[in-house]
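Board work, copied verbatim: VOC family protein
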Amino acid sequence: MATAIDAAQVTYEAPDLELMEKFLTAFGMTKVEGSDENTLYMRGTGTQHHIHTTRKAAKQRFIGASIEVAARKDLDELAAMPGSSPVREAVEPGGGLEVVMHTPDGIEIKAIWGREKPEPLKDREPFAFNNIRDKNRVNGTVRQGVAPCTIARLGHFVLHVSDHDATLAWLKARFNFLDSDYFLPPGEEGPIVGTFLRLDLGEQLVDHHFMLVLQSDWVGVHHAAYEVTDLDAVMSSHDFLLQEGYTPDVGVGRHLLGSQVFDYWKDPFGFRIEHYTDGDVVDASHQPGKFNGTASETTQWGNRPPLEFFQ
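↓ predict structure ↓
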């Protein structure tokens, strides 16, 4: 199977690219050269050429996600699988090669390799945090005004699918994903209706989850999540987005599964998007657990999502 090494981008369609650009800029992304009246490419401060793509269309729609793989041979292996495109030149800015596939529900999953890696954009250093025991900030201060944060990277995305088990089997036949945790129906011991997946990079530390696959009565994306510098970035950006007239969705709070401090918003076309920081990292030895609570119980503290949050 192919070795996935990073979440490269999510791709949408929407009728107004200027409106999307305005929001994503306020959210902390930067427009990429190569954007035009038909397609908007936005990047973070990291080395992915772009992490959010919007194509102009009459109606809003989630297209899918792109996954960076480790080597050209990974593309060859994926191209040989049923339903895959041949290995082909990528048409988006940054170049490279790609293989296009579709999940059982028709969600586009694109494997990419060899895309240009731009220089990182300047960002402030994370603030050292003084807890009750460890005093890491000595002769220093925290000074963070209300301002848009800087997005570092696309950390994960969540898919709603019509058949959890079939989608999971499809993904695992193609990529090196490991299970991190499981969702069960509230108060029940089974069946598994959601699986948090992570990368398998051996002893290298990876995020607790790269993707969440959720059984649902509708198909699409629940949200895409972007990592920011630290807690002050989450909070100051929250105040900035409020100041700009945007309405928060759910947040700020701390998740149970993955432990991230989160802040959910919706873009102008109703797609949920998340700032997060301080998530769990694990290696290949991590063993999955099971969670059978309600959506509101997925939050340890802070603004709790409504019961229908994951429906």
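The CA atoms of residues 183 and 194 lie 5 Å apart.
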